[in-house]
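ok trying again, last paste got cut off:
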Amino acid sequence: MLRFLQTSDLHLNALRSRFDGYLERADQMLRALDYLAVLHRVDFMIVAGDFFDQPNLTNADRQLLSDWLARTP
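nice, full thing came through this time. structure:
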């Protein structure tokens, strides 16, 4: 049996203008998804929706997503 984890609308940079620690909070959320995937022995993760909230991505925004995708099998 295949196991799926589905999430959507992560909006990783939504708090950028209001919260200096937005990247750390976004990274914690991504690590929580990783934890759930391992805990439930997920075969596939589906992200349906927006990764980012604001279109003007910073290099740090891009790096956060790139790092997560690189460590997620």
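cool. The first strand starts at residue 4 and ends at 7. The chain has two helices and two strands.
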